Amino acid sequence: MNVFEFRNLLKSEDKKSKRKSFFRSFIKPVETGANGTQDYVVKKGTGKNKIASTRQ
C-alpha cells in the first residue's frame, strides 16, 4: 500500500466515524412510563419488536 492509498483510507475512515456520530445525535432515548410509553414496542433498529425499558 502506498502513501496515497493510505491517506485515502484514513480519510474514508474519518468520514465514516463523523457520519456515525452525527446520526447518533438524532437518536433520542424513550422514557418508559412517560406519556403512555410503558408498553412501547420498538419498530425499527437493533431492538426491533422488543419492549422499551428504562436505562440505568
Describe the protein.
By secondary structure, the protein is an all-alpha fold. Helices cover 39% and strands 0% of the residues. It has one helix at 3-24.
Largest sheet: none
- The radius of gyration is 19 Å
Q: Total number of β-strand segments?
A: 0
How many distinct helices? 1
Whole-number average pLDDT? Answer: 79
Structural class assignment: mainly alpha
Low-confidence stretches: none
Beta-strand portion reads under 5%
Question: What coarse outline follows from CA principal-axis ratios?
Answer: rod-shaped
Report how far apart the termini are: 46 Å
Helical coverage, percent range: 25-40%
Helices and strands, in N-to-C order?
H
Keywords:
mainly alpha
Secondary-structure blueprint:
Elements: H1 3-24
Summarize the structure.
This protein has one helix spanning 3-24. It is mainly alpha-helical and 56 residues long.
